[in-house]
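Batch manifest line 303
LIGAND: zinc ion
JOB: complex structure
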Amino acid sequence: MVNTVPVQREALHEAVPEVAAFARPAVRLHPRQAEPTAEQSSAGGPLLWPEHEAWPTCDGHQGRPRELAPLVQLFKHDLPADRALPDWMFPGSSDLLHILWCPEEHGEARLPTARLAWRNASALVDASARLPEPRDLDRAEAIPLPCVLHPEVVTELPPLNYAGDDPTESELVPPILPAELNERLSAWRHPSEPERPDGASHYWALATAPGWKLGGWADYASYPGRYARCPCGAQTRLVADLMSAEGLDSWWQPSAAPDFPWKGAPYDWSFHEPTQLRLGRDGFQALFGCTADPGHPLITYIE
Ligand SMILES: [Zn+2]
Ligand SMILES: [Zn+2]
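JOB STATUS: finished
ARTIFACT:
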């Protein structure tokens, strides 16, 4: 199985071992364009769906209800059995996670609305492959191209504490790291890597993985603080990061997996942006969920 946790992490853990206490599991999905079957973990592919169960729809639009589009199907058996997973990922006896969304615009921010659904794959006796027919898709860029997933469990480290001077942001984003630890991480430079042009710490490059992933830490330097809170007031957690770019040139590269489908040609976008999902200018898409009540609607972020 592929391992993309940067080798440069070792030097960080040696220099600042206390940060390990803040590590969190995440699942990098590594989508690669293909023709997934309903028995495979996929992005934008057919879902393994019970025959007797209606396909979910969204009523928030004029005319006919809009069929939801599949974002992710993830089978637990595609993940290593000996690794801790995000604790919300497979509740109870579930072993199949579905993430769907209505790709149309909703509300003032005109964002798609997503939902999670769980199943027990072995109990799906009458299930078959389901994928809504593409119809009136005026937002094709909100529907991922079909990809097979190559899931990998990684550990991520929290973002550095908010350092700006916006009082609203500091109120929304509580500090995660103790001040002294935050200071050491902010000043940390890898002993054998070149200085960054902006002189910044190398920590950012090692803390969170790029590309499509579930769970882990949200990089709150990229996400405005309002996504750190559910409307009920509770903190949110990162459920899914659906970044357009997989960051194949980052430090998060396979250390030993010669056969893993990695980059292709330098400008082969089927590798660099395999899902072609891109709603905002910068290609940042993410889903946040409430930590107090998983029944609260997911919050969609786009930039
Ligand atoms: Zn809708
Ligand atoms: Zn809530």
